């Protein structure tokens, strides 16, 4: 009897030890999951706010709501390398105000323009010269919606982290589809605008 009782106590202790190990493992996994959710929420919120704010400012300039409007007569263009070794096209020319006053004889803008053409530009307070027109509006509008999409992802992650699973589920179900569709449609329209400017526009 003593031997059987000892075996029962040993098995009970083994089960208890296994149960505690399983609980500690689950707690560790839960902490790791909460940490990943917190990082995802923070990244989504910060990046979404920055991207939406910046692209929204550029969109406001593209539609003429901010900055100073003007025209750039393109004298020359060249492909240069940016700080991260990415090729981009820089165009130089005379910058005129909306009233025709000469502002700069050698203004520079990153744009894929034709030599001899005159393009509508806007002098933004943070980024300098930016192109105007349908292509710029569609591009910045698409990036603004993409910023809202990232921001929505951060909000859903934050709601999940706070335990509001029902609100997070509803937000991911009804709040993610419209921005995703808008981003896809905006990207397609932007590509068509680029194709039109390069192939069909004289």
Structural overview:
This protein is α+β, with helices and mostly antiparallel strands and 202 residues long. The chain contains four helices and five strands; from the N terminus they run αβββββααα. The chain has helices at 2-62, 134-161, 165-174, 177-200, and strands at 68-81, 87-97, 102-110, 118-124, 128-131. Strands 3-2-1-4-5 form a five-stranded antiparallel sheet, with helices on one face. Helix 1 (2-62) packs antiparallel against helix 2, helix 2 runs antiparallel to helix 3 and helix 2 runs antiparallel to helix 4 (177-200). The model has no long low-confidence stretch (mean pLDDT 75).
Structure described in brief:
Helices cover 61% and strands 22% of the residues. The protein is α+β, with helices and mostly antiparallel strands and 202 residues long.
């Amino acid at each position: 009897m003593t031997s059987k009782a000892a075996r029962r106590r040993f098995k009970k202790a083994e089960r208890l030890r296994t149960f505690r190990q399983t609980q500690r493992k689950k707690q560790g996994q839960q902490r790791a999951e909460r940490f990943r959710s917190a990082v995802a929420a923070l990244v989504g919120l910060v990046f979404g706010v920055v991207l939406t704010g910046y692209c929204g400012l550029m969109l406001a300039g593209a539609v003429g709501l901010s900055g100073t409007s003007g025209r750039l007569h393109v004298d020359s263009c060249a492909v240069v390398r940016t700080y991260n070794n990415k090729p981009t096209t820089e165009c130089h020319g005379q910058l005129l105000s909306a009233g025709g006053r000469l502002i700069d004889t050698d203004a520079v803008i990153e744009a894929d323009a034709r030599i001899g053409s005159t393009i509508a530009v806007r002098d933004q307070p943070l980024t300098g010269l930016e192109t105007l027109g349908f292509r710029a509006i569609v591009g910045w509008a698409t990036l603004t919606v993409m910023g809202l999409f990232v921001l929505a992802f951060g909000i859903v992650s934050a709601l999940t982290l706070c335990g509001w699973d029902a609100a997070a589920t509803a937000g991911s179900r009804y709040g993610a589809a419209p921005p995703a569709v808008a981003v896809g449609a905006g990207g397609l329209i932007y590509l068509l605008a680029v194709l039109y400017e390069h192939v069909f526009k004289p």
